[in-house]
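=== RUN LOG ===
request id: a7f3
mode: sequence -> structure
chains: 1
length: 413
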Amino acid sequence: MENLAPPDWDVVVIGGGAAGLMAAIHAAERGRRVLLLEKNRKPGVKILMSGGTRCNITHSCDNRGIVAAYGKPGKFLHSALAAFSVQQTIQLFEAEGVATKVEDTGKIFPVSNKALDVLEALLSRLRRSGATLALEEPVNELDRADAGLRIVTPKRTINTSHVILTTGGQSFPGCGTRGDGYRFAAKLGHAIVALKPSLVPITIDVPWVNELRGVTLEDVGMKVLEKDKTLSAKRGGFLFAHFGLTGPAPLNISKAISLHADPKSLELELDFLPGRIDAEVDDFLKNESLNSGKKQLASVLSEQLPRRLADTILTLTKQPLDRKASGLAKADRLQLVTAIKHLRIPVRGTLGFEKAEVTAGGVSLDEVDSRTMQSKIVPGLFLAGEVLDLDGPIGGFNFQAAWSTGWLAGRSV
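=== RESULT ===
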């Protein structure tokens, strides 16, 4: 697909990730002469890594559900989702031979569980669109020019009237996403909202957390606390790791830690049985103490929690591991309830951009026309995907924003 001949390109897309591929496809299918510049040896590297190499394409909700997941900034996505909805996303991939499935969490994956199938579908559509893909061609400069915009690469200088900037964020820099787009946008006069890692594992300096590495729970409630004030609260899957905590719930609250000036001043509060109120847990322990007195308390707790976690909770509450369930005093019960429902752990920080799934911050949404994705500052410059100050929770929401904003930009050029 590479062609270094010097035609006049109607549109140059910078960055061959999710948003860039979608933008290039749609612009080319509309008859535009499109050049897609990608600095890596292959496009879509982050697509291949996402979802544990399965690629969580989108989420099984309607457009309003996507908007709501983003909170206040979600309203920016109304036009993009109207242009290219969740349902249209699914239809596009299924039309390219990628059957999809909905998991219990609402996440939508390819039935094959192969991110490569998602990327191949996009590249197949890109080839048919007539767009030209230039690989291993990074952009060194992006400036205004008399006739629009000027792009300088190690191979050529390109003048064009329309540029779509889809360079991604700073997360997973091993994919090549090193924040180039922020530099280009700032040089052209855009304000860049401070960049922080989001959807990133949380680091903890507590020995027992490290000792529980590998223990998973399907549903844990989590809060980020600053002197008893809740900064963020989420619920979902959870995994103890050698560095601290990961999984959907920790990733979804990690932004509050990344944005804080002093993460070490924060605490996490963990609720290991979020589906039950404190009184229900207390009643369970009281009944077990009366009716299962001969059983070890650890065995009783392991009916509700992983055994290694049950043992740890006993240790944290200073209960012998071989203690019988019988004769559990009220004070001991309440200690256990507190440890199960309100366990507090000091925070160290996060694993940073190296392991973050998305970047919080980016080009200010106030400076981009959400109806077209065109810059309000630089005529002919369009922006889509993670380069924008728009980051959603885990679950396919960020991919949907990339597909939709990319498609709308491709429609607008």
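=== NOTES ===
The longest strand covers residues 229-240.
The chain has three domains: 11-196+353-412, 202-265, 278-344.
=== END ===
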